[in-house]
Amino acid sequence: MAPIWSKQPLKGAFITFHIIRTLIILPWLIVRHIPKSARPFPQWSLKLSVINPLARELFVYQTETRSNGMSTVESEHKKAKERHSLTNPADAGVYSGVLSPGAVKPAPVGGLWYPAPISKESPTLDDEKVVLHFPGGAFVLAFGQEMYGQAVSTAMSKHLKASRTFFAQYRPAVDDATRFPAALQDLVTFYSYILSLGFKSQNVILSGDSAGGNLVVALLRYLETSVELPLPGAAIVWSPWVHVTPRAGADYETCRNAGSDVLIPSLLQWGADAYFPKHERTPEELAYISPLNHPFQTRVPLFIHAGAVEALYAAIEEFAKQMTEIDGNRVKLHATDFTTHDLIMSYPGLGMEQEVKNALTDASSFFGL
């Protein structure tokens, strides 16, 4: 059931209350965290100590009002003009098995090109590396805006030498037509689109953060069984949400560092409630939705990043271990000390460019780029 604050006139009242509350707590957060001893970790900067609780406040607002941010994404896509691409579903045969159209069907989805889209004047794409990135959002929030896309693109071009990045916004789960496997169908749509432009599959690097990381793992699982699509050259997942259960909020509350990380239990519960299919889930569907304890064989090198003090770290570490133990897999876990959830999306505002460089330099070496 949606919170009472998600509909007018109570939604308007909650927004007003939230703005006033934020203005009040901001100076208090700054003063409170000036002493290093008062910070969640003495190694944290003042900026990180203040931004994390502010981010939680934003997630409270979005969760209580059911504001998923998709209207903002669509507005920015329009402003981007030729850098925006609306991608239509691929041929029906591409969506098989758990992705077979039923109540949930593939649909047009959009994303942003960085620094520019492919044009007729573009030279051959034979040697171009392209990053196909999927943002997080607990399956219910949209983060396909310019500020996030630019941050990801800048990091990928600098440290992975990717000539282009496509920042792809899949459908958030808002109704029965966008539950699982809608978002995963969208990833297949985007991947098919990238290949249709002429990029070689071995030059495509899949990337995803948080719930987007979950979806990249699911896409790898799917591609290993697909006869229609070739495998990409590599995959990076940032703080992937690998343990998604019907009790997501309660599960998160038991995690170490849950109180100091940016995520909140109610957001994850909203995401799980909205994303899980309404029917009784099959074992195959559960493996796609929650990859922890469902490892699989993949021929794609998989680089996993996690913040060493993020609440999801233990689950991510265990997932990496399980994947590593599968014969033939090439998997590497890179943990950044004293870093919280989703480094790739938050690093510009936190001044953590060096940490992103270290992670991507490690990934580049691991991939042999």
From TrEMBL:
Active site: 210
Highest taxon listed in the record's lineage: Eukaryota
Pfam families: Abhydrolase_3
Domain Alpha/beta hydrolase fold-3: 131-343
Record keywords, A-Z: Hydrolase, Membrane, Transmembrane, Transmembrane helix
Transmembrane parts of this sequence: 12-31
Recorded GO MF terms: hydrolase activity
UniProt cross-references to InterPro entries, sorted A to Z: AB_hydrolase_3, AB_hydrolase_fold, GDXG_lipolytic_enzyme, Lipase_GDXG_put_SER_AS
PANTHER family associated with the record: AB HYDROLASE SUPERFAMILY PROTEIN C4A8.06C, ALPHA_BETA HYDROLASE FOLD-3 DOMAIN-CONTAINING PROTEIN
Family: Belongs to the 'GDXG' lipolytic enzyme family.
Protein name per UniProt: Alpha/beta hydrolase fold-3 domain-containing protein
UniProt organism field: Xylaria grammica
